[in-house]
Design brief:
This protein is an alpha/beta fold. It has one domain: Indigoidine synthase fold (3-Layer(aba) Sandwich), CATH 3.40.1790.10. The protein is built from 13 helices and eleven strands. The radius of gyration is 18 Å and the shape is globular. The structure holds pseudouridine-5'-monophosphate (PSU) and manganese (II) ion.
Length: 305
């Protein structure tokens, strides 16, 4: 019933047991401008391949759920305007009406699980927005992490969010939050958030073992792996927080709400940092693609042991 199409390399990898890493497409259509979005998408795929795994960029095109995009389709998506942003609530209607759209973290997790993919790399997940106590704006990504057994490698939740509330909700939902190589939760552009992460792991092997143990326990959800951006590419917390405050203060007068909030803020932060935020974003995505490939291999090895 679901029209699912695997790219040639993904079909082959799934047949032969080569690990596959899922990649989202909202980051391409809503998270970065052209042509950096296309370059980053290609480079993230290349990083996954360089680490011996196969990339599966996920998107919906004319009612087909694509698991792995050809370079031609990737380019078409990266150049497209007004692409729908598909989260958990949107995916079924889009497919049943033969629509098209880019998948968020939540929708990419759903597709990854369907395709039998354990690991997914992105930039930052959605979370609890600042002011959520009145707006109720909490990303569907958080609930998806509690329900769908995929390990998501990110650089933490975006610092435009309310990070303490995001951590609380993840704890309530029973989602393990694992900082990589440090005790502190990273905050996307910055390595530091001022918040201690609930868990710390230093190797792909530990993260893979925890993923498999959740499955063995019959727990339905996934894990959030929060890897800090490499030090040479970070924007320190003091520098970015002033910029974030300016962008957030403009929200009411810009009349932006709902799904448009995250793309709007990312664009404003790009403008206000003269493009520096985008360079950091690109580097952290590539770094996450590398770690995701290592985790995918470890899961494969440990499962077969
Ligand atoms: N991280 C980025 N850029 C993005 C996103 C994350 O660096 O564009 C996207 C992801 O697809 C994430 C979504 O799932 O933003 C969250 O949107 P919302 O808060 O509307 O759920
Ligand atoms: Mn939202």
């Amino acid at each position: 019933m679901i029209d699912m199409s695997h790219s040639t390399e993904v079909a082959e990898a799934l047949r032969e047991g080569v690990p596959v890493v899922a990649l989202e497409s909202t980051i391409i259509t809503h998270g970065m401008p052209y042509p950096q979005n296309l370059e980053t998408a290609r480079e993230a795929e290349a990083q996954v391949r360089a680490h011996g795994a196969v990339p599966a960029t996920i998107a919906v095109l004319n009612g087909t759920l694509h698991v792995g995009l050809s370079d031609r389709l990737l380019e078409r998506l990266a150049r497209a305007h007004d692409v729908a942003k598909l989260s958990r609530a949107d995916l079924a209607a889009c497919l049943s009406r033969s629509g098209s759209g880019a998948t968020t973290v939540a929708a990419t997790m759903i597709a990854a699980r369907l395709a039998g993919i354990d690991v997914f790399a992105t930039g930052g997940i959605g979370g609890v927005h600042r002011g959520a106590e009145t707006s109720f704006d909490i990303s569907a990504d958080l609930r998806e992490l509690s329900e769908t057994p995929v390990t998501v490698v990110a650089a933490g939740a975006k610092a435009i969010l309310d990070l303490p509330k995001t951590l609380e909700v993840l704890e309530t939902l029973g989602v393990p939050v694992i900082a990589v190589g440090q005790d502190e939760l990273p905050a996307f552009w910055s390595r530091s958030s001022g918040l201690k992460a609930p868990l710390r792991m230093d190797t792909a092997s530990e993260i893979a073992a925890a993923h498999l143990m959740r499955g063995a326990l019959g727990l339905p959800g996934g894990q959030l792996v929060a890897q800090p951006v490499p030090p040479e590419h970070e924007i320190p917390r003091e520098d970015i927080s002033a910029v974030i405050d300016v962008a957030l203060s403009e929200l009411p007068s810009a009349g932006v709400s709902g799904k448009a909030v995250t793309p709007y803020l990312l664009q404003r932060i790009f403008d206000l940092t003269g493009g520096a935020s985008l360079r950091t974003n690109v580097e952290l995505v590539l770094n996450n693609a590398r770690l995701a490939a290592e985790i995918a291999w470890e899961i494969q090895d440990q499962r077969n042991f």
